[in-house]
Design goal:
By secondary structure, this protein is an alpha+beta fold. Helices cover 25% and strands 26% of the residues.
């Protein structure tokens, strides 16, 4: 995954993904159709996705389906390959640590390197819709900046703190073929897979052949 150095930036450089969050999320998912979630072991989850190059009706329909699927699975973020589509786009409906709701779409995301002065690690539990029922502590920076494009192809930048920062990093990882369990030790990964084996998903998943 390509990364960029970042300097201190003005807040007005970033999109405001909190405005009309409830209304926008509802509009997306009411247009969409719920699709089953792919789970660890499915090939589409373990390879880098293709760049989004067409910003038209087909992408808009995919985004609607992603919001519908995310809500049905009670998630806070969803990458396209989690519903079997190998394109670099993710959606999110995620609160930050202050309880502020963020709703948005990022195509072709690039996660920027966190400046040293903001490199504070948060080792909270992390879970994934593609690893249903399992959680493990994972240290990630508590501040994140993602650059990419919106659903119309316009350049955007999204910043997040706390839980929302974790979401931005987690979903970007997905589109480069990495699950959070790939960042765990062998022992931790084994424990997560055992948790998953002992639980029944609360949403529809794609069985691995």
């Amino acid at each position: 995954m390509a990364q960029q150095d970042t300097d201190q930036r003005a807040d007005d450089e970033f999109i405001d993904d909190t405005v009309d969050a409830e209304e926008r999320e509802l509009a997306y998912r009411e247009r969409g159709t719920v699709r089953p979630i792919t789970v660890v072991g499915h090939p589409v989850l373990h390879q880098e996705c293709d760049d989004v190059t067409e910003f038209g009706d087909e992408l808009a329909s995919l985004i609607d389906d992603m919001f519908a699927s995310q809500r049905a699975a009670e998630g806070v973020g969803l990458a396209a390959n989690q519903i079997g589509v190998g394109l670099k786009v993710f959606v999110y409906d995620c609160p930050d640590d202050e309880g502020v709701r963020h709703v948005g779409v990022v195509c072709n995301p690039v996660l920027e390197e966190v400046p040293a002065e903001r490199r504070l690690l948060d080792d909270s539990n992390e879970g994934c819709l593609s690893v249903p029922g399992a959680y493990a502590p994972l240290a990630r920076p508590d501040y994140a900046v993602v650059r990419g494009q919106d659903a119309e192809g316009k350049p955007i930048a999204v910043q997040g703190t706390g839980y929302f920062a974790r979401c931005l990093q987690h979903e970007t990882d997905h589109l480069y073929g990495r699950l959070y369990i790939d960042r765990l030790s062998k022992r931790e990964r084994k424990d997560v897979m055992q948790q998953m084996a002992e639980r029944t998903p609360r949403y529809e998943v794609v069985p691995n052949d």
